[in-house]
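Incident log, structure service

09:12 report received: a user says their structure output differs between two submissions of the same chain.
09:20 pulled the input from the user's history:
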Amino acid sequence: MGRVSQAQAEENRRRVVDTASRLFREQGMQVSVADLMKAAGLTHGAFYKQFASKEALVDEATAHAFAEFAQRYSAGLERHAGPRAAQRALIDAYLSVEHRDAPADGCPVAALATDIAREGGGREARRVYAEGVADFADFLAGDDQDGIVRLCTLFGALVLSRATRDSPLSGEILAAAHAALTEAK
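09:34 re-ran on a clean worker, output below:
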């Protein structure tokens, strides 16, 4: 089999990072390299042509997940009349059954928290995660509520609703958090 072109190699790398970003949010960072590469439609051996280690991929996939998420909520600012409307739209989407049931496409704050917490300090993924949390909290900040409080409410509600998905409590958690964040003060 011949060598792939530089353009194809770049496309393969992008595909691996995108696939890893989704799988890590859906299944956790314990996904094996073999399973990840299979999901990306590439061979296990191709991984080591693209990445020095799985840790390097974790770093890049974490950055990709946060960049993708930030792009989504920034796009909300453009679609809605001002930051309050964009925040409300994000809260509506974040605390939805659709978001609860689709972690692969969802918020990296909630999906990656336990994996990042277990990884230890000093890693690029931890730095990117902390920056992503801070940026998201800044986006959520308003005149009446601290962005960190709002983020903690969103995060906690999403994680608890996912953990209780097969129970009526799951929907109650989403609805209660939504009401707490959107009621006029």
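09:41 both user submissions now match this output. Likely a transient worker issue. Closing.
09:42 reviewer note: The mean pLDDT is 90. The radius of gyration is 18 Å.
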